[in-house]
Specification:
The protein is α/β, with parallel strands linked by helices. It is built from 11 helices and 8 strands. About 40% of the residues lie in helices and about 15% in strands. The two termini are about 25 Å apart. Strands 1-2-3-4-5-6-7-8 form an 8-stranded parallel β-barrel, surrounded by 6 helices.
Length: about 280
């Protein structure tokens, strides 16, 4: 898809029922992110999330989405201390949860960990820019890449992660003009979440796409539900016996709304209409 210029679609998911809905769409990839600690487990941030919790969440997603490429998110404390820890915990994602790949945060400082995991035969996704697990060390949640020194750090991080063997890098909260240059010069697949439209693919938090997380919503996060409610309502109006319609199709509630909203997201990413300026940070 990268070589053919076809945008790759990626969403987070944390449990079985939503995974079932995603499995019925044309979505390319699923990330079981440590953001599940916030939206599914109620933590104030991603710091408390454990490997055992991630394995539980990821296993349920795999059961719901057996046909999707699933990436497990290495939680804080599961890989930083040593290559041995990194490989052992990455292997848990593969063996216990059925993941296809893992993701870890950090650029140059985590290149050795990424290399150790990749050398063990596990595909690795890097994650740079705004990295929530270490955001406190960089002044909190903020856009990264508006200073020349930050741009150089991002460029060097991608290069060193690629040399370590990652097959993809996620850019988070980066101005579109910067992510455009980084993507052009990269040899790996570049994904963006809040990084504009010029990357090879897009990631979005499912709970933001559905408007399910009430605590806050980042600038780049679009809720797609309003765009599909008319289609959903029209299908209901056409059926006189809604009880029978619901029993026979299960298309009378949130499961169907989820599927329609995700399909709208996929269409807009592939057409290039999302993310537009409204859902991108200024340069």
């Amino acid at each position: 898809m990268r070589s053919q210029g076809n945008p790759i679609t990626w969403l987070t998911c944390y449990e079985y029922s939503f995974a079932r809905a995603l499995n019925e769409t044309d979505l390319d990839m699923i990330l079981v992110g440590d953001s599940g600690g916030m939206v599914a487990l109620g933590y104030p941030d991603t710091t408390p999330v454990t490997m055992s919790e991630m394995i539980l969440l990821t296993s349920s997603v795999r059961r719901g989405a057996p046909n999707k490429f699933i990436v497990g998110d290495m939680p804080k404390g599961s890989y930083e201390a040593s290559d041995v820890d990194a490989v052992n915990n990455a292997m848990r994602f593969i063996k216990e949860a059925g993941c296809d790949a893992v993701k870890l945060e950090g650029g140059s400082s985590m290149a050795n960990r990424a290399k150790a995991i990749a050398n063990s035969g596990i595909p690795v996704v890097g994650h740079i820019g705004l990295t929530p697990q270490s955001s406190a060390a960089f002044g909190g949640y903020r856009v990264v890449g508006r200073e020349p020194s930050e741009v150089e750090n991002l460029r060097r991080s991608i290069q060193e992660l690629e040399e370590a063997g990652v097959f993809a890098v996620l850019l988070e909260a980066i101005p579109p003009s910067v992510s455009k240059v980084l993507t052009k010069n990269a040899t790996s697949i570049i994904f963006g979440i809040g990084a504009g439209k010029y990357t090879h693919g897009q990631l979005l938090i499912l709970h933001d796409l559905l408007g399910l997380y009430p605590n806050f919503r980042p600038k780049f996060a679009k809720c797609f539900v309003p765009e599909v409610l008319m289609e959903f309502n029209d299908a209901l109006v056409e059926n006189e016996d809604l009880a029978a319609f619901g029993r026979d199709t299960r298309k009378d509630g949130l499961y169907q709304i989820t599927r329609l909203a995700v399909e709208a997201y996929i269409r807009q990413v592939r057409s290039g209409s999302f993310p537009d300026e409204l859902y991108s940070y200024r340069d």
